[in-house]
Amino acid sequence: MKQTALLLTTLALGLTGCVNTPEADPYRHIQIVDSSEVTSCKLIGNLSTNAMAPYGMFSGTAHDTVIELARKQGFKMGATHLVLNAPGKDGDYVTMTGRAYTCAP
Description:
With 105 residues, this protein is an alpha+beta fold. The protein has one domain (25-102): 2-Layer Sandwich (Translation Initiation Factor IF3). Helix content is 34%, strand content 29%. Strands 1, 2, 3, 4 and 5 form a 5-stranded mixed beta sheet that branches.
């Protein structure tokens, strides 16, 4: 009987943890689109990000990092869509600029 009660209590606490877990990446819903897709949207601002450019087998990660940082920055601005320029390089950093928009659903 005690084992059953302990099991049920553990299960209940585990499920409570799942319900209260916040969304891991709340900025992932922000869409990266071409400028032609935001013609009826409202520009809310410019964004600029950079990340240290790794070397060797990790060289692709800087590009992914600047896109992730742009999404985070857009989320903080209240954006629903981003139009990003091609990444550039500034010394040891990969840079990216773009514009943040809010678009009606």
